[in-house]
Design a protein that fits this description.
mainly alpha; 81% helix
Length: 100
């Protein structure tokens, strides 16, 4: 860090605090995004194993169109997948993969 920058931060500590607050906020968002992406990977792998590669690919396509951080969107898919509920997975696909 340059001496001028360090001196500036000493004179304006609230700026340094704001920088650290924003860094922490970005880190938290990154960690949350990583957890959700990990959950999605587990769901896709379970679909490949217990249903089919085609089902997993359709879900993957649908996931590109939705906000995967939204619990109302991902929750029903996660529940249907973990309960091996094929009808639930198919209903989720009907809801989130519109016919083109």
């Amino acid at each position: 860090m340059s001496n001028q920058y360090a001196e500036f931060l000493k004179q304006h500590p609230y700026i340094d605090q704001e920088i650290h607050r924003r860094e922490d906020e970005l880190l938290s968002k990154g960690e949350a995004k990583g957890k959700v992406e990990g959950k999605v990977e587990v769901i896709l792998e379970m679909l490949r194993i217990h249903f089919s590669e085609a089902t997993a690919e359709l879900v993957k396509l649908a996931l590109r169109r939705v906000d995967i951080r939204d619990a109302e969107v991902i929750g029903p898919l996660e529940k249907a997948t973990t309960h091996l509920d094929e009808q639930g997975v198919n209903q989720w696909l009907k809801d989130y993969l519109p016919a083109e």
